[in-house]
Amino acid sequence: MTLNLTDARAIIAAAEAKAGEIGQPMNIAVVDAGGNLIAHVRMDGAWIGSIDISINKAFTARAFDIATKDLGDNSQPNQQFYGIHASNHGRIMIFAGGIPISRDGRVVGAVGVSGGSGEQDQTVAEAGAAAL
């Protein structure tokens, strides 16, 4: 089981709506169960530098089946995942905004959002994830 393009479009639409509601343009990425990019949107005015971050947040959430916010909390000095951001050729993002997406108890993909504060990214990612 994995997300498909129809799923990705629904996730992105919900995330875009939330980003519009809070007035913060975002980059929104959706990956499948293998961590491969299905779709990405850069809203008008969203930072170019956040394109890569959003894609890698989605990858990270799927690669470890954990929200990037939670991974970030556990990767601080003296925590169990300290240094994890250096793994996977530097693709690992430990900022809020990446959320794994499950169906029937199995992770089938993830959404990654970047372009605002950590709290804004997380809020928009949660809205996207809730679309399914």
What is the element layout, followed by pairings?
Elements (H helix, E strand, L loop, with lengths): L4 H18 L4 E6 L4 E6 L7 H15 L3 H6 L24 E6 L2 E9 L3 H12 L3
Antiparallel strand pairs: 1-2, 1-4, 3-4
Helix pairs in contact: 1-4
At the first level of CATH, what is the class?
Answer: Alpha Beta
| Percentage beta strand | 15-25%
Largest sheet: 4 strands, antiparallel
Integer average pLDDT: 97
Structural write-up:
By secondary structure, the protein is α+β, with helices and mostly antiparallel strands. The chain has a single domain, classed as 2-Layer Sandwich (Beta-Lactamase). The chain has 4 helices and 4 strands, in the order αββααββα. The protein has helices spanning 5-22, 50-64, 68-73, 118-129; strands spanning 27-32, 37-42, 98-103, 106-114. The chain has a 4-stranded antiparallel β-sheet. Helix 1 (5-22) packs across helix 4. The chain is globular. It starts with a helix and ends with a helix. The mean pLDDT is 97.
Structure summary:
With 132 residues, the protein is of the alpha+beta class. The chain has helices at residues 5-22, 50-64, 68-73, 118-129, and strands at 27-32, 37-42, 98-103, 106-114. The radius of gyration is 13 Å and the shape is globular.
